[in-house]
Amino acid sequence: MALRFTSLGSGSSGNALVVENGNTRVMMDCGFSIAETKARLERAGLNPSDLAGIVVTHEHDDHLGGVAAFARKHAIPVYLTRGTAQWLPEGFPAVLVRLIDSHTAFAIGDVSVEQFPVPHDAREPVQYAFSDGDARLGVVTDLGCVTQHVVDKLSGCTALVIECNHDIDMLMAGPYPVPLKHRVAGRFGHLDNAAARHLVECLDRSRLRHLIAAHLSQQNNKPALARAALAAAATCEESWIGVADQLDGFAWRDG
Ligand SMILES: [Zn+2]
Ligand SMILES: [Zn+2]
């Protein structure tokens, strides 16, 4: 068995990522409609019934927005913190809810799941690392600032999907209202390219085989800028850095 993973799409209009080990497939977040999620899964060669669970990071619409309807329709258990669970719609079947705390690792079938708390403007946000016992994929898509705890959890990963939300100059010169600019750039907002670079520089990268920029703002960032920032951090060719796309995500990669 070996870990592999694919993104169904990433950005402020919706996020979903699938991790597979053996016969277990776990979806992380779902910010798409039922039909859109099904179509994106099919693109990755999957059916909704292939999913053993959905793990959720936090209640923002681009992550939780599609979870309840999709989970209910296909009877898929949803793993989330108590703070995030408060945002499930009324009447969501309790039998599908799996409450997790933000520190205690667990497993869904063959996929080991380790969640960790992150600074972000949500009730009880977490991000995740997934493992098959050897390969380890760390994902952070909504991170206001880098904490030592995040550094510890992402160190030693074989694959990383890291938020590169905005270029600070593009954000500040761009069309967002000033309060929104401050929210996005704040310590409970989103990582900019420079902060993502700093995060990767802080990590133990000795086992790293995949480094992918994710959650790029379509208004306030460019793939080339994110790629350059992460390539500088990892001291590698820019072509080696992946970029998760809002529409296409990225194709399967072996962890
Ligand atoms: Zn988000
Ligand atoms: Zn968010």
Describe this structure in words.
By secondary structure, this protein is of the alpha/beta class. It contains 9 helices and 14 strands. The strands form 2 sheets. It has a 7-stranded mixed β-sheet. Strands 7-8-9-10-11-12-13 form a 7-stranded mixed β-sheet. A hairpin with a 2-residue loop joins β2 and β3. α8 runs parallel beside α9. The longest helix is centred in the last third of the chain and has 12 residues. It is globular, with a radius of gyration of 17 Å. It starts with a strand and ends with a strand. The model has no long low-confidence stretch (mean pLDDT 97). One zinc ion binds next to α2. One zinc ion binds next to loops.
> Could you say which overall geometry the principal axes of the C-alpha atoms support?
globular
Number of helices: 9
Average pLDDT confidence is 97
Structural class: alpha/beta
Lateral arrangement of strands in the main beta sheet: 6-5-4-3-2-1-14
Number of strands: 14
* Largest sheet: number of strands, sense, barrel closure: 7 strands, mixed
Fraction in helix: 25-40%
Question: Which distinct ligands sit in these coordinates?
Answer: zinc ion
Query: What is the H/E string?
Result: EEEHEHHEHEEEEEHEHHHEHEE
Percent strand equals 25-35%
How far apart the termini lie comes to 11 Å
Query: Uncertain regions: pLDDT < 50 for 5+ in a row?
Result: none
Radius of gyration based on Cα positions: 17 Å
